[in-house]
Amino acid sequence: MRHLSLPSGPLRSSNFRLLLACDVISATGTAVATVALPFAVLAIGGSASDVGYVAAAYLVPLMGFLILGGVVADRLPRHQVMVAANGLQALAQAASAILVLAGHARVWELASLAAARGVGTGFYLPAAEGLLPHTVPAGQRAQANAMDRIGRNGGQIGGAALGGVVAGLAGPGWGLAADAVSFAVAAGLRAGMRFPARPSAPRTGMLHEMREGWRDFITRRWLWVIVLQFAFIVAILTGTESVLGPLVADAHLGGARSWGVILAAEGIGAVLGGFVMIRFRPRRMLLAASLAVPAESVFLLALAVPLPVPVIAATAFLTGGCVEVFGVNWATAMQQEIPPDMLSRLSSYDALGSFALAPVGTAVAGPLAGSFGTPAVLAAGAILIVVLTAAVLLVPDVRHLERQAPAASGQPGGLAS
Q1: What is the pTM (predicted TM-score) of this model?
Q2: pLDDT digits (tens, 9 = 90+) for 78-110
Q3: Does some domain include residue 131?
Q4: CA dihedral over 359, 69, 223, 140, signed as positive or negative
Q5: CATH classification of the domain holding 391
Q6: What is the DSSP string of 95-147?
């Protein structure tokens, strides 16, 4: 009688398989909501500025709780922190869906519920960054990062396409409901993860651990320089995807369905980029990562014209692939260079810095477009991305950080079955 063989590589770990499933489900729901939420705001009579305010309401508490979330994730089982965060996100998005579907939603209510989701995400992100390295052996982390990002981007493809169809045909409220369900399912699956007990270690006060994380963060020049760069880039991209892109789609490209197609194309590019990164392991990780960033400018310029939907979708496809080159190399560099017991804390400073200007980007995108025109704002963002990347490449620590050879042997971070 033949026996089924275990999968190879990271998929041998049951914890990694659960992590991958949860990330695919969550990414699908989030992509649906990314398309649906701006059109939900517009459908209840909100303005372009209101779309930005709702997006900013999500980002401000996210940033406010990131550092605390990093400390909590370094103290408690990370997967349990993520379960609680997913539960809060599910409840908040379900309430948004009910209000929109009932026809009683107001902008301030959607903003308040977006803020509650932001609190959950503030605890979720540092725990998520610190969890993956514990699910696979050290030598498989680059491959696991690529596979996880392939899964998430695959979810984004389906979710963006589904979000466009659902928002265009059934209404944006159903898209928000789908996101709420995805959070609940992911929380249930993640609760099934099992890890060995963490070794006990003396604990100091939370403020001390925050300061310790900050000192370690600022001593790594490659880390804070790129985080500073992405504070501006994330603001530009968040303003584009949350506000300016939907406005261009609504005015010139046929509405939510076209925007869903464009975001789905970005996801397809990201999936293919992830497959490339399973095999492509550049020696100078951050150099390769940084050289991929300016591709995002091409997408912004295509929207600025705007070019026909298929052409914009092609630039989104290119952007998605290049984002994966950056993302996999960045995650692998973080996991290689930062001690495991500090990873969630430093990841929280990474996320805080990267999102620091995102609320500003979403809040001012609409007013700036009204004052100077959407094309001018998008073109200015594209130019700034190129200039910032050129400045970062002048830093030797970024150009010269090298991938280390994995140890000859190592134990998995999670249980396999």
Answers
A1: 0.68
A2: 889 999 999 999 999 999 999 999 888 888 999
A3: yes
A4: negative
A5: 1.20.1250.20
A6: HHHHHHHHT---HHHHHHHHHHHHHHHHHHHHHHHHHGGGTS-GGGHHHHHHH
